Amino acid sequence: MHPLKKFVVAISSLFFAFAPANLPAVLPPSVYESMQKDAPESLEIEVLRIQRTPSSEEGKEDITLTAAVVKVLRSASGLTPGDSIQIRYRHILPAAMMPGAPQIPVPDDGAKTIAFLKKKDASPFYEPAAEAMSFNKF
Q1: Which residue, among 99, 106, 93, has the nearest Cα to 26 in the 3D structure?
Q2: For 109-138, what is each residue's pLDDT tens digit?
Protein backbone atom coordinates (compact mmCIF):
# COMPACT_ATOMS: atom_id res chain seq x y z
CA MET A 1 0.00 0.00 0.00
CA HIS A 2 1.26 3.46 -0.88
CA PRO A 3 2.52 5.45 2.19
CA LEU A 4 0.13 8.35 1.49
CA LYS A 5 -2.83 5.96 1.33
CA LYS A 6 -1.73 4.40 4.65
CA PHE A 7 -1.59 7.88 6.19
CA VAL A 8 -5.11 8.77 4.95
CA VAL A 9 -6.51 5.48 6.27
CA ALA A 10 -4.85 6.03 9.66
CA ILE A 11 -6.13 9.60 9.99
CA SER A 12 -9.64 8.55 8.90
CA SER A 13 -9.64 5.74 11.44
CA LEU A 14 -8.65 8.13 14.20
CA PHE A 15 -11.38 10.57 13.20
CA PHE A 16 -14.09 7.91 13.38
CA ALA A 17 -12.69 6.42 16.58
CA PHE A 18 -12.93 9.75 18.40
CA ALA A 19 -15.99 11.27 16.70
CA PRO A 20 -19.01 11.57 19.00
CA ALA A 21 -21.42 8.69 18.47
CA ASN A 22 -24.44 10.91 18.98
CA LEU A 23 -23.91 13.43 16.19
CA PRO A 24 -27.29 14.65 15.00
CA ALA A 25 -28.36 13.38 11.61
CA VAL A 26 -29.93 15.42 8.86
CA LEU A 27 -33.47 14.17 8.31
CA PRO A 28 -35.37 14.24 5.03
CA PRO A 29 -38.16 16.86 4.77
CA SER A 30 -40.83 14.13 4.86
CA VAL A 31 -39.77 13.17 8.41
CA TYR A 32 -40.21 16.76 9.64
CA GLU A 33 -43.58 16.95 7.86
CA SER A 34 -44.66 13.75 9.60
CA MET A 35 -43.58 15.13 12.99
CA GLN A 36 -45.60 18.29 12.33
CA LYS A 37 -48.65 16.24 11.31
CA ASP A 38 -48.36 14.08 14.44
CA ALA A 39 -47.76 16.98 16.87
CA PRO A 40 -50.54 17.11 19.49
CA GLU A 41 -50.52 20.92 19.39
CA SER A 42 -50.53 22.99 16.20
CA LEU A 43 -50.92 26.63 17.10
CA GLU A 44 -50.45 30.12 15.76
CA ILE A 45 -48.59 31.91 18.54
CA GLU A 46 -47.10 35.32 19.28
CA VAL A 47 -43.87 35.29 21.28
CA LEU A 48 -44.22 37.63 24.24
CA ARG A 49 -40.95 36.99 26.06
CA ILE A 50 -37.77 34.99 25.60
CA GLN A 51 -35.72 33.86 28.59
CA ARG A 52 -32.25 32.41 27.98
CA THR A 53 -30.35 30.75 30.83
CA PRO A 54 -27.05 28.87 30.76
CA SER A 55 -27.57 25.12 30.58
CA SER A 56 -25.93 22.48 32.72
CA GLU A 57 -24.53 21.17 29.40
CA GLU A 58 -21.54 23.09 28.05
CA GLY A 59 -22.21 25.00 24.84
CA LYS A 60 -25.98 25.02 25.34
CA GLU A 61 -28.64 27.28 26.82
CA ASP A 62 -32.12 26.63 28.15
CA ILE A 63 -34.86 28.57 26.38
CA THR A 64 -38.22 29.49 27.88
CA LEU A 65 -40.64 31.21 25.51
CA THR A 66 -43.77 32.82 26.88
CA ALA A 67 -46.32 33.04 24.09
CA ALA A 68 -49.93 33.98 23.50
CA VAL A 69 -52.09 31.54 21.55
CA VAL A 70 -53.50 33.50 18.60
CA LYS A 71 -55.21 30.65 16.73
CA VAL A 72 -55.67 26.95 17.45
CA LEU A 73 -55.28 24.61 14.51
CA ARG A 74 -55.19 21.51 16.74
CA SER A 75 -54.88 21.13 20.52
CA ALA A 76 -54.87 17.87 22.46
CA SER A 77 -54.53 19.80 25.72
CA GLY A 78 -57.55 22.05 25.07
CA LEU A 79 -55.81 25.37 24.41
CA THR A 80 -57.92 28.28 23.14
CA PRO A 81 -57.06 31.64 21.57
CA GLY A 82 -55.89 34.09 24.23
CA ASP A 83 -54.25 31.42 26.41
CA SER A 84 -50.70 32.05 27.55
CA ILE A 85 -48.24 29.15 27.34
CA GLN A 86 -44.61 28.50 28.15
CA ILE A 87 -42.39 26.49 25.81
CA ARG A 88 -39.10 25.08 27.11
CA TYR A 89 -36.23 23.46 25.27
CA ARG A 90 -32.44 23.31 25.02
CA HIS A 91 -30.60 25.32 22.35
CA ILE A 92 -27.02 24.88 21.10
CA LEU A 93 -24.99 28.09 21.19
CA PRO A 94 -23.61 29.10 17.77
CA ALA A 95 -19.98 28.66 18.88
CA ALA A 96 -20.66 25.03 19.88
CA MET A 97 -22.59 23.99 16.77
CA MET A 98 -21.35 20.97 14.84
CA PRO A 99 -22.30 19.73 11.39
CA GLY A 100 -25.48 17.73 11.31
CA ALA A 101 -29.17 18.31 11.68
CA PRO A 102 -30.34 21.89 12.11
CA GLN A 103 -31.37 22.78 15.62
CA ILE A 104 -34.62 24.15 16.98
CA PRO A 105 -34.63 27.89 16.29
CA VAL A 106 -35.40 30.61 18.81
CA PRO A 107 -38.14 32.83 17.38
CA ASP A 108 -37.71 36.58 17.73
CA ASP A 109 -39.44 38.49 20.51
CA GLY A 110 -42.83 39.58 19.15
CA ALA A 111 -42.72 37.08 16.28
CA LYS A 112 -45.86 35.34 15.10
CA THR A 113 -45.27 31.74 14.11
CA ILE A 114 -46.97 28.39 13.68
CA ALA A 115 -45.76 26.16 16.53
CA PHE A 116 -45.85 22.36 16.55
CA LEU A 117 -45.70 21.36 20.21
CA LYS A 118 -46.35 18.63 22.73
CA LYS A 119 -47.13 18.84 26.44
CA LYS A 120 -44.10 18.17 28.60
CA ASP A 121 -45.06 15.27 30.90
CA ALA A 122 -47.41 16.40 33.68
CA SER A 123 -45.86 19.87 33.86
CA PRO A 124 -47.52 23.06 32.62
CA PHE A 125 -44.85 23.45 29.93
CA TYR A 126 -44.82 22.62 26.25
CA GLU A 127 -41.86 21.54 24.12
CA PRO A 128 -41.11 21.45 20.40
CA ALA A 129 -42.56 18.39 18.66
CA ALA A 130 -40.99 18.68 15.19
CA GLU A 131 -37.32 19.33 15.96
CA ALA A 132 -35.89 22.07 13.70
CA MET A 133 -39.28 22.56 12.02
CA SER A 134 -41.22 23.17 15.26
CA PHE A 135 -41.60 26.90 14.52
CA ASN A 136 -42.64 28.05 11.04
CA LYS A 137 -42.98 31.68 10.07
CA PHE A 138 -45.96 32.54 7.91
Answers
A1: 99
A2: 999 999 999 998 888 999 999 999 999 986
